Amino acid sequence: MLLLMTPVISYYLLYIVAAILPAAFLMRYIYQQDRYEKEPSPLLWKLVLGGVLAALVSMVLEYAVIDYLLPLLSFRSESTYIIAEAIAVGLIEEGSKFFFLKRDTWHDYNFNYRYDGVVYAVFCSLGFAAFENVQYVFSYGLSVAVSRALLAVPAHMGFAVFMGSFYGRAKVCEARGMEGGVTGNLVLGYLVAVALHAFYDGTAMMQTTNAFLLFAVFVALMYYIVYRKVKSESLHDQQIY
Asked: Vertex 229, ends 110 and 190: CA angle to 5°?
């Protein structure tokens, strides 16, 4: 019996590793860019779990909105429907991530450097991406693992880098008594992440030549900007308290 179970266990482990490894690699990269004070493991694991919870919440909300609400509305064309769906997904998924990010870190005493905002947002977002990746790999097989490792998982990190950079600035504003700056940066961080996510999903779902070219240019440009932004945020990090 044990001999029969071993191949099955190996099969599941292979799928889980293939799904989680890209997110783990990117988490490690972002963690290493923290130049001054590394964040404690319990907090980072809490954020990863928060990302998983955000994915579960998003599944429920997307089911309600995309499967029930959007079909009740009138759209002029399929393209308009795809755009609406992409915006809905962006609003829901980035909103869910933002909720758990803020809940778990805003009042944490470890949040004492601006770059911490990037670390926190990325770990939460990649927890989301890892859980989502497990679902895709088990549903469609290892054939999707490579494409998602190169596209979907880094994209989630990219959205989070922008959200996290504004999130860190919002915390700096709070420490300096700038309430308008707190609200402005939190809202901007969320909306920029939503816009990037919606554009990514929308161009990916269009399935036309022009949309594919736009998607390819967008992904390449976003990855380049995100790489430079991480380096800049790390290099110009500042203490909050």
From this structure: 65
Q: Which of 214, 210, 164 is nearest to 188 (CA)?
A: 164
Q: Is residue 56 assigned to a domain?
A: yes
Domains contained in the chain, number: 1
Of 111, 93, 92, 89, the C-alpha closest to 102 is 111
For the packed helices 152-175 and 179-206, what is the interaxial angle rounded to 10 degrees? 170
Residue 145: inside a domain: yes
Instruction: Tell me the sheet residues that pair with 239.
Output: 113
Q: CA 155, CA 219: separation in Å to the nearest integer?
A: 8
Looking at the domain assignment, is residue 9 inside a domain?
no
Provide the residue type at 32 as one letter: Q
Angstrom distance (rounded) from CA 217 to CA 76: 27
pLDDT tens-place values along the chain, 241 residues long: 444 446 656 667 877 888 889 999 999 999 999 999 999 999 999 999 999 999 999 999 999 998 888 887 777 788 888 899 999 999 999 999 999 999 999 999 999 999 999 999 999 999 999 999 999 988 888 878 888 888 999 999 999 999 999 999 999 999 999 999 999 999 999 999 999 999 999 999 998 999 999 999 999 999 999 999 999 999 999 999 8
Amino acid at 39: E
- Whether 137 is covered by a domain: the verdict is yes
113: β partners = 239
Query: What CA–CA distance (Å, rounded) separates 193 from 102?
Result: 15
